[in-house]
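step 4 of 6: structure.
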Amino acid sequence: MPDTRRLLKERIAGTAMLVLTAVSILLTAAIGIGLYIRSEPLLARHSLGSLLTSSVWKPMKGEFGFFPFIMGTLWVTCLALFIALPLSLLSAIYLSEYAAPRIRRMVVPIVDLLSGIPPVVYGVWGVLFVVPLIQRSAGTDVTHFTSGYSVLAGAIVLAVMIFPLLISILFEVFSGVPLEMKNASLSLGATQWQTIKFVLLKKSAPGILAATALAVSRSFGETIAVLMVCGNMPLAPHAVTDACYPLPALIANNYGEMLSVPMYDSALLFAAFILFVIIFLFNLLSRIVLARIEKNLV
Amino acid sequence: MKKLEEQFFKTLMILATLLIVGSFFGIIFTILKKGLPAMNMDMITQIPQGGYYQGSKGGVLNAIAGSLFLALGASALALAASLPIVMYLNVYLKKSSVLGRITRLSFDVLFGIPSIVYGTFAFTLMIYFGNKASLLAGIITVAALVVPVMVRTMDEAFRSCPKELSDAAYSLGATRWETAKVLVLQAVSGIQTAVLLAFGRAIGDTAAVMFTAGFGDHIPSSLASPAPTLPLAIFFQLSSPSEAVQARAYASALILTFIVLVISIASRLLGKRLQKNKTRS
């Protein structure tokens, strides 16, 4: 009798856990579908092409051109990656190939702490340090007046935010390269740097790509830190010192207010839908690549 | 030539690492330098008085309390959801299970979905069901945001449990549910790390609580009342034209940074201490 009770417990627990697992997986789909349904009214009025390429943003007149916001997002993301990727690569190579265990034990916890700093604190740092720095360095140039609140400020803040993500994934990718391969190269007379260049980097190319894709999607979605330093002007930027207005900032600044304006909430949810789709795809692809890499190791 | 190239890149690598480490200390330095002068007892013991955002007296106790309630609630709720999922993945499912692979992949993907998307999605649901912004709505949204963090961290802890342990449990006639409970004890340090990580993420998040938790000058008294949070308090104070109010934003940022750093460091220390008492495989 007690045995049947134990088995019953086992069954019930199993079913409950299965349901919970299924629900949490379905959450991803629910978010995607929910955002799509809510952006449907906008998509019924305007064609996808005109929404993505028009620069006119006049919600009161029912004109929703997302081009400036998409460009703002792309500028900030690309520039952040341009800053963060080389630095993170160099640092991750150093940590995995050169650094003494003692130094690694000192650096890795600091990188972890960096990843724990809340986005809003990064934003405050950007306002207090990065923005004035840009303003001062560009201040004398009259033709390119800048308040400092710019693409560049957003990109620098974002770059620091994605350092920990990039370094931790790259470090793992590098430590996955078999030691025998490196030793073979070294024993043929290659220097350590040559081994890194021809063996390590080549072998980890898919992993580096996957890490980059994750960093891109992280930069795409970062909201508050970027919003605080990028100036929020609905114009496509032409220089790194121009202000810009990325998609997440658009949503954060406007959603929840003025919902009486027709189509406005639909337009903002469409912005969220764009973010969701792009980030979902980037994440999915890079995670599949990373899982493959991990499997080859075992 | 080869040597020169080697030396050149090694120097670059060290410089890059120094820059990254330096940026952490740079951020802490900036926050301390600007935050400390504005810091006083009122900041952490008072709620905002009338006209606080124009420079009147008061502090951000409401936001500190709101943030703590929200992060505690969200971590507890997320733990209640994540633990069964991780137990199911590791005990009930076989290693080669397709469902297990799909589940892990979808949590990895969910992990990347930005908090603004969670926030907007939750808010559309709230409009649909006619709910107002409240502590409870904030807790649920942030819990959904941190479940992936928890599942990933705890999954690793469960996976590193020695196989002999579950074999031993099974050979004594334990059911899978009973074995799972044994494994929980073994993975307790990983669970603790996961909870602290989630707590840190929950207390620092802005975009998910912006629409869902609301804001107010009082300490939330029930799950249905709006919950002010520190990140939003920082954001609002910083947007003020008054310099005195901006200074309070710096002090608030200092408080938030302090809380988050204490949690990060505590989780590292706890993790190390518990590791020692673990059965080794």
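step 5 of 6: annotate
 - Chain B has a mean pLDDT of 87.
 - The two ends of chain B are 49 Å apart (CA to CA).
step 6 of 6: archive
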